[in-house]
Amino acid sequence: MHLSKRRPFSYGLMRRINFDRGLSSEAAIPWAIENAKHILPSWIVLPIERASMALDFKHGIDYIVNTTDVGKIYIQVKSSELLAEKFRNEKGKYRRFTGIVVVDQKVNTPEEICLRVIRALEPIHEMLLRMRGQVDRSLEIASSESPQ
Questions:
Q1: Segment 86-107, tens digit of pLDDT
Q2: CB atoms within 10 A of CB 103
Q3: What does DSSP say about strands 63-67 and 72-78: parallel, antiparallel, or unpaired?
Q4: Which residues contact 86 (CB under 8 A, 6 or more apart)?
Q5: What phi and psi, each to the nearest 5 degrees, are found at residue 75?
Q6: What sign does the CA torsion over 35, 18, 101, 71 have?
C-alpha cells in the first residue's frame, strides 16, 4: 500500500477511544437504574435486558425495557448529541420504538441518567398507549356490531 493511502496512527487510536466511550456510556444505564430505581415510573418492569449482539448490530438496540402495559420499548445509548442525531436520522425497523439516551461526560449521577432514560421512553410509551387504545376501541366496536 502506498504511504499516502494509509490512515494515520491517530485514526485507530481515536476509533478505540470512541469505542471505549460508547461501552462506558452503555454500562452506565443498568448501573444508574439499579441505583436510582426509586424514581422510575411504575410501568417500567425491572430488570432491563441487554439486547443481543444481533439486535444491537442490525437495529441499534442496546437495551430492552419491558413494561406493564405496552410490551417492549428499546433503548439506544449514545455518548454524544451528535451521534444521537445521526441515529435519529437513520431508518430502521425498530426506530419508532427506540428511545435514545445520551450519556456524556456532563451526566454522572444515577438520578440524572435515570431521568434521561425516562424522558427518552415516556413519549414512546404514550404513543404505544394511544395505539393500543385505538386497537381496543376497534375491537369493542367490532364485538358490539357482531350478531349475538
A1: 998 887 778 889 999 999 877 7
A2: 24
A3: antiparallel
A4: none
A5: -125, 135
A6: negative
Q: Own/partner pairs for 66-69, CB < 8 Å, 24+ apart?
A: 67/43, 67/125, 68/42, 68/43, 68/44, 69/43, 69/129, 69/132
Please provide residue 74's backbone torsions phi and psi, each rounded to the nearest 5 degrees.
Answer: -105, 155
Q: Which helix (H) or strand (E) holds 98?
A: strand 98-102
pLDDT beyond 60 at 138: no
Looking up cell 439486547 gives 51
Instruction: Say which residue, 106 or 128, is predicted with more confidence.
Output: 128
Q: C-alpha cell of 92?
A: 430502521
For the chain, what are the domain ranges? Answer: 12-141
The per-residue pLDDT for range 3-31, each reduced to its tens digit, is 556 655 565 655 655 555 555 688 899 99
